[in-house]
Amino acid sequence: CIDEPTSGLDSSSAQVVISCLRQVAHHHNICIISSIHQPTAEVFSLFDQVYMLAKGGVCVYSGPPSDIRQHLTKVSDRMDQDDIFPVEELIKYSCLSYEDSSVQDLVASSEVQILSQDLIVSEETTPVMDGIPTNRNRFSMKSAWVLMKRYTLYVRGYLWPILGLMYGLYLCFGLTLNILFDHNMIFTDGCVNLEDEFNSTCNQTQDKEDEDFHLEASFIYVCFGYGMFLFLVLVQSAIMFSKEIVFFCNEHRNGKKILQFSSKIMLLLLLSIYIKLGWYSTGAFYFMKIWVELLPQIPIFLIYAYLIDIYEPVRSGIYFSIAFYIILGATAVQSVGHLLSIVTLGEFVALVISIPGIEAIFLMVSNLGTPVKRLHYILQFISNFAPTRFGIEAMFLLQYGFDRCRPKEVQKILFKLKMENDEHEHHTSFLLYTFIMLIFNLLFYRLISLLLLVIKSNHYDHRRKRAQKIANFHKNLQPSNVIIPGLQC
């Protein structure tokens, strides 16, 4: 619904604007309602339907522009003359008072015509019990591609400083970890023979104290480097999505509401009769959001993996596995951020409170304190929905597992996490389990986020009840005899 789109324009520019609106309405099969003061004949003829008000707010004509001449013959004998323009003549009548006899004749004729059209429609059509089905936009790659190009322009024009700051924060965090922690801790394998360890419990030497210190430092390094990195990803994804979901809801709402217009202006012009729900589907928007957020981050994630990879001297080629689990975990956590934004409805205060709360729960069930296998069974169940847990477990397996210890030995950290025995035969199964659970978390949070977004943006409307309400409204509808004396031409 557009109020006076040609206001302040000359006749040529006004014709260009209305012609553009006409093309948009016909090409996209939507309805545009516009109001215009004193249109020219060329502009007037571009509209499909015209609803004209005279002084006082009474309707003097309703129908296509081509029928105006025939309509005016009922009150004027000059319409057969070639030098008479129907549009200008109708505008002259609309500027007369509602008490004028010619205006009253036009009003009566328009009312009869409208009622006759309603009667013809009721006779030539069959009522549908559930009403007319809503014309919805479906998912299409074309819509997603258009949204991607639009978002790219949005990033180039506005978001690039914010994204640059976040990406710089990732890299500074990884560089800080690389500098603060002693790289010599990676040479401590933490392998012990359970029998020898039991016999030498009382003989704690300086070497064993140093070994325990290095193991504790390595444990903190992995948990901090992976867990806090995912926290930064969670913050970025949640805050960014909370801002963008506002624009999405506004654009989706614009196409979802039936356009209605009523005001004091003299002319209402209808360009089409159909309207679609939303400018694009919810799936197209979320599909676009997933990829435009992830693709620019992949190079940053690869650089971050390079910064925190201090294990190459003892685990050659471990970089690729670390990078893979960082990207996989970050993708899953992004879904959590989207879910928080949808649940909190984009409220910044609620988001700021919920993000640390969710991260605290994730870290609590990620072996940072008590190993998961020793927690209450309810907390063990909750830990299955914590991407941080499985990423940290995978990092420990990559660093200390897979025959780094000799037979009959166990690795201390893996043993406490219940992922180790003296034969080292289940490391592949444990690593595969972490991969499967990260994929599960990714899909689970993606689907839940998409489902909630669909529910939020596409409110369920019972079609049969809606059709009954419309029918009852028309049955009880009475013609209005209200005159608005203050309404000027």
Features:
mainly alpha, 2 domains, 5% strand
Provide structural commentary.
With 489 residues, the chain is mainly alpha-helical. The chain has two domains: 2-135, no CATH class; 141-255 and 281-458, no CATH class. The chain has helices at residues 11-28, 41-44, 68-72, 86-94, 101-124, 141-180, 194-199, 206-256, 282-294, 297-308, 318-343, 348-364, 377-383, 387-400, 412-416, 427-457, 463-475; strands spanning 2-3, 33-35, 49-53, 59-63, 191-192, 267-270, 410-411. A five-stranded mixed β-sheet has the order 1-2-6-3-4. Strands 5-7 form a two-stranded antiparallel sheet. A hairpin with a 5-residue loop joins strand 3 and strand 4. Helix 6 runs parallel beside helix 10 (297-308). The radius of gyration is 35 Å and the shape is elongated. The two termini are 21 Å apart. The model is unreliable at 257-277 (pLDDT under 50). It is a multi-pass membrane protein. The chain crosses the membrane at residues 158-181, 219-241, 261-280, 286-307, 319-342, 348-365, 377-398, 430-455. One of its GO terms (molecular function) is ABC-type transporter activity. It comes from Euroglyphus maynei (Mayne's house dust mite). Residues 37-74 form the ABC transporter family G domain.
